[in-house]
Amino acid sequence: MLQRRSIGNKWETSLCLSPTDARKNSSEYWRAKFEQEHKARLELLEIPWTPSEAGLQTVPTQSKKTFKRLAHKSDNPHGSFRVNNKLQKKRDRQQLEADERARIDQKRLESALDKEAKAKEYQELVDKFDGCGGGQACQCDATTCPMLKYKKCPTCGDIKLRLCTKSACKDARAVQTQPE
Q1: How far apart are the first and last CA of the chain?
Q2: How much is the pTM?
Q3: What are phi and psi of 44, to 5 degrees?
Q4: 151-152 and 81-82 as β-strands: parallel, antiparallel, unpaired?
Q5: Residue 164 CB-density burial (10 A; 0-12 exposed, 13-18 middle, 19+ buried)
Q6: I need a labelling partner for 122 at 20 to 30 A (CA). Which of 62, 77, 104, 149 fits?
Q7: How many CB atoms lie within 10 A of CB 8?
Q8: Residue 85: strand, helix, or coil
Q9: CA–CA gap between residue 92 and residue 21 (Å, rounded)
Q10: Cα–Cα distance between 145 and 172 in angstroms, integer?
């Protein structure tokens, strides 16, 4: 049933003979060869066999080895961790994160307090400026009024040492100074 033929320097084993009624390498040739090979393979699959009958040796399999775990139980709620001090590393990381959060919260609190202090100072400046009549008719007892160096923006109402540099205020001043 097996046929050996040489192809170049190699020998090929086939389960069927070449069909003689069809031209070589035509579609009929390959169809007939495929059908013969398919039938031969099905016949071989139906034959019951054991590896010892075929001359194959049986290899005894080993049972799965069990290793002693290198883990220790700890008091954490997540079970056990290995010996690498993972629990301690996790606690250290959590402590660093908590310290960082506390530092950020402290910085935010200081920033909020600074904003409040600046707003309070500005409100005191506005009250003094308004109390002196905008630096025009000073009512304070000083020989030179400290409010004379400040100017009030006619557009936004801010009190500053120089002219206001906001874009809306600049545009309003430009419109006021244009000749008609």
Answers
A1: 115
A2: 0.41
A3: -70, -35
A4: unpaired
A5: buried
A6: 104
A7: 6
A8: coil
A9: 84
A10: 29
